[in-house]
Amino acid sequence: MLHLHYPDKLVSNFDQVGLKEGVPFNVQSLGINSVSLAMEIQGTAIVRGEEHDAHLFHDWSCACVPIRKEDCIKGYLSLSYYQTFDITLAVPMVEKAAEEIERGLLSSCSERKANRVMRQFDTYGLTAREKEAAYGWLTNSSTLRIAADMGITEGTVRNMIKRVYAKTKIGDKGEFIRRFSIYL
Known about the structure:
Order of helices and strands: HHHEEEHHHHH
Number of strands: 3
Radius of gyration: 25 Å
Strand content: 5-15%
Largest sheet: 3 strands, antiparallel
Helix content: 40-55%
């Protein structure tokens, strides 16, 4: 979905060509523009002034970068600016912004997965520390790594994992992984 940020004086120009939020920027709707080109090449696209098919954009240069999550394009970030602005500054800026968005998408996805697992652990009455150790165990961290992360000994981690198995009525790591990995 298109979301526009522009000065109020441009509103009438946009209205004249039917440009409003929700209008697709694909080739069929608006012709060649940075978004339609980025969609075609699935990479960073730059379209300068008169290269645009829509006359409205002839004074603007635009850079567009796909937003990816797990190797799939989830959206596009486009920056439009008057041609007098140096394009060598715009492209790295929009690419950096896209990287930050992608990083946020990945971390929020990981946080949601961890929260789902933790809620499941709650149903078995695990303590906060047991949940922390169990999550490390579920994500295939070694007892040594879990101990280092939690600031405790490896023996304490092993004892916690035994308590987790007892509370969840699980006999071994394979069964533990099968039961809880569906929440990852």
